[in-house]
Amino acid sequence: VKACYNRALPLLAFFLLTGCAGWQSALDAHGASAISIKQLIILIVLACSVVWMLVMMALIAALRRGRTEQHWPKLDSRHERGMSGIVIAATVVTTVVIGGFTVASFFTTRALSAAGPDDLTIRVGGSQWWWNVEYVDPQPERSFRTANEIHIPVGRNVRFQLEGDDVIHSFWVPSLAGKQDLIPGRPNELSIRAEHEGVYRGQCAEFCGLQHAHMAFLVIADSQDAFNSWADAQRQSAVAASDAEAAAGHDAFLAKACASCHTIRGTSASGTTGPDLTHVGSRKYIAAGLFETSRGSLAAWIADPQTLKPGNNMPMVPLTADELRSISAYMANLK
Amino acid sequence: MRINLVLVAFAMTLVSCQREERDLRLDPPLSAALDKVALMSNGIAGAPPEAYFALDRPYESNAYDLSQGKRLYSWFGCKSCHGDGQGGIGPSFLDGWWYYGPEMVSIFASIRDGRPHGMPAFRDKMTTEQIWQLAGYVQTIGAYSAKTAAPGRDDDKQTRPAENRAPAAKLFDQGPKPVHLDQGPTP
To answer: In the Cβ-directed half-sphere of A253, how many Cα atoms lie within 13 Å?
Structure first.
């Protein structure tokens, strides 16, 4: 049994510590507000640990004292006054610690809401079960729409306007900021500033139905130059089909039910019920973090979305093998 | 005796664990079979395919299918002509009068193939299953008799009776003063 413990304990410690790193962890903070929240968590955990140790030490000391009559506390007035002194001191220390926590969380909350002037506004709509992302620009022709993948410039304040399109969802990128709910009919706002470049995973954090667990997204923090070139590429209409197969896919896409829910800018497909597919091939994942983008995963998804993500709102459109092959080639081509 | 009663009560509570089945994935052959409705030559009324009865007519009575129909109603722009069901450019669904009859097959055919005077065909825009779901929802809006299943509620303004309230029933109620002067006793 002991050998078993000896092996299990390091393993357990390993599993606990792996929770501290990775691209989706509040303890691996890379955003301004996530860093302040992490500092607050560490402060409170450390202070509480110290208090817990002191209480436990006092308890152990009390338990280990002898139980014979000579060790009993003497109940004369001098000793009683001593004991009241200890009680008063403990009460004062408790008040100071809790007061300190209150002040610390006040300053943290203030740091979260005072983000300064915004450099960029992004409107995020939560739907069952994907994220609709709109980059809002004062010049309407520079606004554009994408899905499930948000690029932001590093070191800039980005204002997210969040609203649910059907039920309540919650926008949560643990490495960058705290949670904020997306509520139908009531826009919420969240300011994020990424301090380091990187790819951060986000996840819906409010149960929103059958596929709540498959409602992930990526936030990619780039340098300002890389962000600008990405945004310019996203503003473009879809690239023309590069070969005959992709061209056939383009025609099949427009002839079938696909075009009534999806938009591909530069073609007649202009549905807004599903994600914008203008640059779907350039995104890292499809179906809100379900698969990495590849021609194979696109084909599998189109062929049978209800088996891969049961209950989602993409129907199984009857396609011939040739149509499926050409549409997946066209989708992968949309970089 | 008492123990039997307790057992029966326990069994009754287990019955409530059974929830309505949601068929999320319609098999392609079934979907193809559901497309083959037999319409009368004038495009009004007819018979649904065998598969429709084999599935136990889910699109009329399954709450999930009705809810999906409600979503499709707004996603596919039905509101732009039919409003919330009160009608507009297109006919109303609430007044109990159906140009092409109140049967599911007629509504299915109207959506799939379109109708004269502006109703477009959704054959290439929606799948067969979606058309059935939408037809079930449209029939529910103006139903003559109340259904036990209802689509999910939403936060929109309530502009008409709820879908499972059979709004058309009272229009055909003989009553002291009929709403439609030229109506018969029952539609």
So the answer is: 29
Model-level pTM?
0.85
Task: With CB atoms and an 8 Å threshold, state whether B25 touches A310.
Answer: yes
Tokens encoding A310: 């049961």
C-beta atoms of A260 and B125 within 8 A? yes
Which candidate, B141, B58, B30, places its Cα nearest to that of B96? B141
Residues B127/A257, Cβ–Cβ less than 8 Å: yes
Name B162's Cβ contacts closer than 8 Å, sequence gap at least 6: B150, B153
Cβ contact A181:A321 at 8 Å: no
| Phi/psi of residue A170, nearest 5 degrees | -140, 130
| Number of neighbours of residue A217 by Cβ within 10 angstroms | 24
Is omega for the bond preceding A129 within 30 degrees of 0, making it cis?
Answer: yes
Residues A151 and A227: beta-carbon distance below 8 Å: yes
Best of B19, B74, B78, B124 to substitute, by most chain A Cβ atoms within 10 angstroms, is B124
Q: What is the ipTM of this complex?
A: 0.82
Would strands A198-204 and A144-147 be described as parallel, antiparallel, or unpaired? Answer: unpaired
List C-alpha distances in Å: B30 to A143, B1, B43, B118.
43, 49, 23, 30
Alpha-carbon distance of A175 to B16, in angstroms, equals: 43
Give the residue from A92, A93, A132 showing the smallest Cα distance to A217.
A132
Question: How large is the C-alpha radius of gyration of chain A?
Answer: 28
Between helices A77-113 and A32-64, what is the axis angle to 10°? 170
Q: Which of A4, A24, A29, A46 is nearest to A111 (CA)?
A: A29
B179 pLDDT above the threshold of 60: no
- What are the tens digits of pLDDT across the range A104-146? 999 998 888 766 677 889 999 999 999 999 999 988 889 999 9
Q: Specify the residue for token string 């992490």.
A: A38
Q: What is the CA radius of gyration of chain B?
A: 19
Summarize pLDDT for B92-113 with one digit per residue, the tens: 888 778 889 888 999 999 999 9
Q: How far is B15 from chain A (nearest CA, A)?
A: 23
Residue with tokens 């008799």: B145
A318–B28 C-beta distance less than 8 A: yes
Contacts of residue A206, Cβ cutoff 8 Å, sequence gap at least 6: A168, A169, A170, A181, A182
Q: Which residue of B has its CA nearest to A183?
A: B155
The answer to whether A288 and A130 have CB atoms below 8 angstroms apart is: yes
Closest by CA position to A128, among listed B77, B75, B124, B164: B75
Distant-in-sequence, close-in-space partners of B179: CB < 8 Å, separation ≥ 6: B170, B171, B172
Separation between Cα atoms, residue A241 and residue A261, nearest integer Å: 20
Handedness of CA A100, A103, A105, A107 (dihedral sign): negative
Q: Classify residue A291 by its DSSP letter.
A: E
Distance of CA A180 to the CA centre of its chain: 10
- For residues B76 and B137, give the distance between their C-alpha atoms in angstroms, rounded to a whole number: 13
